[in-house]
Amino acid sequence: MKENFYALLICILKPDYTIDMSLQVMIDGLFKKENTTIGRPDIEDMIRLKQKMTYEEIGKLYGLSKQAVYRRIKRFKEARAV
Fold first, then answer.
1. DSSP letter string over 5-53?
2. Domain range spanning residue 66?
3. Taking the model in full, what pTM does it have?
4. Number of domains in the chain
């Protein structure tokens, strides 16, 4: 039910969108994450940077929140330990 209201809101805010277009936008994701292309080399760099920088500073470099940086580093270390 929420999706219908969101589609209606998209149609109101963007008058050139049809109902079908607004529903497709919702399926594809109107609000995609900024940076989803961070790979293993980037995470290894984050670990090196962590020795001199805070999670927040690293996050600004990669377009991530400090929590996202922490979680990526933690998951990488856990996967490497296994």
1. HHHHHHHHH-TT--HHHHHHHHHH-SS--S-----HHHHHHHHHHHTTS
2. 40-81
3. 0.56
4. 2
**Claim to verify: residue 22 and residue 52 sit in the same structural domain:** no
What is the distance between the alpha carbons of residues 30 and 22, in angstroms, rounded to a whole number?
9
**SS3 at position 53:** coil
Residues 31-74: pLDDT tens digits?
Answer: 555 556 889 999 999 999 999 999 999 999 988 899 999 999 99
- Using CB atoms within 10 Å of the CB of residue 50, give its burial: 0 to 12 exposed, 13 to 18 middle, 19+ buried: middle
CA 77/CA 5 separation, integer angstroms: 42
